[in-house]
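Illustration: 5-hydroxytryptamine receptor 3A-like.
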Amino acid sequence: MQYLVNVFIFSSIGPTYESMQNVFERQSFRPAVNLSNPTITNISFTLYAVLGVVRFLVNFSFNGDCRIVYWQHEFLVWDPDECDGVTRISLPVKQLWSPDIIVYDVDDDVSQACPYVYVNHTGHIRWDRMLRLVSSCNLEIFSFPFDVQNCTFTFGSYMVSPALTFKEMSGNSKRYLEASGEWELVDILGETSILQFGIDEWDIITFWVVIKRRPVLYVVNLLIPSSFLMLIDILSFYLPPHSVDRASFKMTLILGYTVFLLIMNDLLPSTANGTPIIGIYFSVCLALMVISLLETVIITNVLHHSSMKYQEVPNWVRVVILKHIANLICYRWPEDAQLHPSVPQKDKHENTNTALPELQQICQYLGDLHAHLNSLQKENELQEQWCHVGYVLDYLLFRIYLLLISCYALVIICMWCVWISHS
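Result:
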């Protein structure tokens, strides 16, 4: 053993590949002069990039890069002053003993092999191993697109400890992580524990990578267009229902919103364990549009009620709608509005038996014309009264619709804020 420690001391040109053959031949043994002294492996975790997220079923795949490992090789020690000032060399990792490190909680390890390690003159070895891990994490999509995800990476070995504090690892990762992309690193947390397999004990280091989604893309492509369509639906109530086919406009708007839902379906995460609140938001918005269309159908039916047998406005409708509800919603009546039924006037052209036949015929014609004019006047009055009933109901339902949308928007905003604060 002493010969191996002093291999490089007697070299005048520095450590060479030939002078380390005795060390290479003993790569199967742990490099400790005294086997009772443990060889501790130090792990440094640095996240360089979130390469992609593949959404499917319950989980999503998380790709990231990290670098590890440090340990002490007691046989590779030399004096730089006697070796031409050489303080660090690189050696093939296959020629040296390397610690057994198992990475848990990953579906696939597609890491690129790093064939060399850096050896310091004190015997400290640094292995810059770039890991590209595909990890399955539970997808919490309730608050999408303002969601925060937590992925776990677990490293295990016989004797392992973190090379840096978890706060320093998190700071290094935030400094190196790419600013572009959908995901943003929030923090890297960790803890050390001991896992026992029978009489064997393994040291475990668990890293929690907390990342959050950048919601700008989804806000611009989903929330803002949906809000615009809802705004147009609200403004459509200002169309005069008696002269414009408001129902056709609303049906066209619902058709456009349905096409929008089909397009945005590809942007939502497809999972089986839950529904994002934004999906509920879109469904309720569609339901509100259908309710708006139903309201328009009711108002249209009321406005055209007078054309069916010229029915009178019932007295209870006058009292409930034209009086109480109109006062409640502050409906302003036109100055020439006639809300009371007209009293039929007596016919002033009464025929007498003594009138001449020509005068009797003229009076009959005048009476028919007067009756026709009275019928038209009554029809216009009935139509005007039913129009006022429709307008009052339209004002009432429009305000109820605004109240529903305002309460719904407030609930959605509060739920998102509470979820973000707890995350």
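Reading the tokens back as a structure: The domain at 2-214 is CATH 2.70.170.10 (Acetylcholine Binding Protein; Chain: A,).
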